[in-house]
Write a structure and sequence with these properties.
Blueprint: E1 29-34, H1 46-52, E2 56-60, H2 66-73, E3 80-84, E4 95-97, H3 98-104, E5 110-116, H4 119-128, H5 130-133, E6 137-139, H6 160-172, H7 180-193
Parallel strand pairs: 1-2, 1-5, 3-5, 4-6
Length: about 200
């Protein structure tokens, strides 16, 4: 029998982090598409981030029904989705800078699409969902990660929480308004630190 999980943060009830979550009202919509193997991962930050952003939704899958995916990508006629993914990776969509987005439309007319998973998992998600490959990609400045509990291919690769925080701050030109997500990441890492040295094997 599986152990019970918190319905909000998806962590085991004994490891619930809801007390550390914040509520941040983003003008930009956020759509998290999470690989199934990440859903109950102890180092998963997507669920924590989504729980902090009322103007967001999280869907789990690797290959989505094309009609359903299109409905998520176009929740309203005036909304344009942007993929948060390196412009030159896995098929390479058109790159667009946050400053250009701000000039083209108000933040309410943008939706940030965030793929949550390892590099290999997100590449598979891209290739199995052509609609994602067709999206313009948000170009972000290089930033170092503070998410030390999970292995990355390089110091510039961010956790889902950090990447979302940076992207929203850039798209809305108000990075300080999303600083609260930093304390959520700190709470997660403080909890995981007590589980070392097994944390990297989960």
């Amino acid at each position: 029998m599986s152990r019970p999980r918190c319905v909000r943060c998806r962590r085991l009830q004994a490891q619930c982090l809801c007390a550390s979550l914040v509520t941040l009202s983003s003008r930009v919509r956020v759509l998290f598409l999470q690989h199934p193997l990440e859903r109950d991962h102890p180092k998963n930050t997507a669920q924590l981030t989504q729980a902090c952003l009322p103007n967001s939704r999280l869907e789990v899958g690797e290959r989505f029904d094309p009609d359903q995916l299109q409905a998520w990508l176009k929740p309203q006629p005036s909304v344009q989705s942007l993929l948060l993914y390196p412009p030159n990776a896995a098929g390479g969509g058109q790159a667009i800078a946050a400053e250009t987005c701000r000039r083209q439309a108000e933040p309410e007319h943008w939706q940030l699409v965030v793929l949550d998973g390892t590099w290999k998992k997100t590449v598979r998600m891209l290739y199995r969902n052509p609609a994602l490959q067709a999206l313009p990609r948000l170009a972000l400045p290089v930033s170092s990660s503070d998410y030390w509990v999970r292995k990355a291919r390089g110091p510039h690769q961010l956790s889902t929480l950090e990447a979302t925080q940076l992207a929203l701050g850039e798209l809305e030109a108000r990075p300080d308004d999303y600083a609260g997500l930093t304390q959520v990441l700190a709470a997660l890492q403080a909890q995981l630190q007590t589980r070392l040295p097994t944390v990297f094997s989960d």
